[in-house]
User: What shape does this take?
Amino acid sequence: MTKATGVILLLMGFFFACEELPLAENSISKISGQLNYVHVFDSSNLQNTMENPLKGFVPFIGTISSFPHSMEYFDFPLSKILTAREKADFSYFETGLNQVAARGNQAVCRPLLDIPGEPSGIPDYLIKLGLKTTYYSDYGGGHSPDYEDPELIAALVYFINQWAKHYDGDPRIGFISLGLLGFWGEWHTWPYSYLFASSYTQETVISTYEAAFTHTKLLIRTPNKYTKKSSIGFHDDSFAFSTLPTTSWNFVSMLDKYEVSDAWQSRVIGGELRPEIQKLIWIHPESCPEDYREALDMTHVSWLINQTVFTSDYAAWPNMAKESALKGAALTGYDFFVSSLSLRDNLDHSAELALEIENKGIAPFYYHWPLLIKLTSSSEIIADSRLDIEWPLLMPKERITIKIDLALHSDIFIEDYTLWLKIENPMAGGKPLLLMNPQSKSHNQGWIALLKFQAQP
Assistant: This one.
């Protein structure tokens, strides 16, 4: 091969900022001179990214469905973990987590004590030590534990610390719902408020979680005085039913009450589409108590449990309802689009690359996943780079410019080149994080061929 002293770039399917006019998909643009240009990407044909990691609709663990998703909801009774005082066995949890990961998904996890209508999640040894419970008949019946029992409080603290010791930062876990207290771990015992945990127990659980988990993102059902200045997010488990601030106990009203209405800017918001409307809201939205899009805009939710779209019943839905549900999933969370790039060969075995990335979604991406870049020829990697990016700071409708100095492993010769980009999912086999750029459609294990060009003498 001969090194090109002057360079002509033949760019397939792209246009340059200086030209102002987009080219047809298979057209060719010729630019002479040194490799030094700015490129603007067409935003008129954006890719849907509803299967991107850590956003969208979420099924219960083990649900097999073609509806796009990247997470599964995995709740588990505490009795499966705590077998004796200060003895934790995570075999049950590990098995479930591996099953989720084997499907390429990450888990939303919640530990449970009191599960209405189902067998209790209270560890047997606590009952034998004298833990008192109160029977209730609502929601199928159950036994609410005495949340002030010292042995129970000690067990909760021990479990949280052990869980974090083994699993904090585990990439198989997307998010953790605090759970543990109240019916279904939702931090209420309505209509029996006297059964719920005291302020002391609540604060103990929250502070223990926050001190133990420093990497995995946490959520709690609703805000309270202990979460005002914390890093814990929230999950609205009655989404689009009692979300909007029409009554004092609705989700947004509670966010306002505890002055955390802007918490979504740094803390993840999730939840569950209210079960009674999980089908109705896509078929007859006018019959639902709240507008789905308005609830999204007010909460900036990243993910929602929506089991109904993952069941066999979904196949019989009208096409318009299916399309609405797919769009509803796509509207959640973040959406990244590379709007422009500049690339310059310094002719000293280095190149300068600048990427402008826009968040077209409704929420940030809350983790610090690495950005990988590589420039390849037909036979080798010419340059590569790995960067830590502050994705959580990229707010909706905002852009960041990422500047990268690339050390060239060899010179730019007369042949074809490809500039690749990948935002790396740390979970092996996990769903790739794709861009809204159409180039994502033909990704290779998450690597996106962002730009292809030829160098000629």
About this structure: The two ends are 11 Å apart (CA to CA). Residues 56-330 form a domain with the TIM Barrel fold (CATH 3.20.20.80).
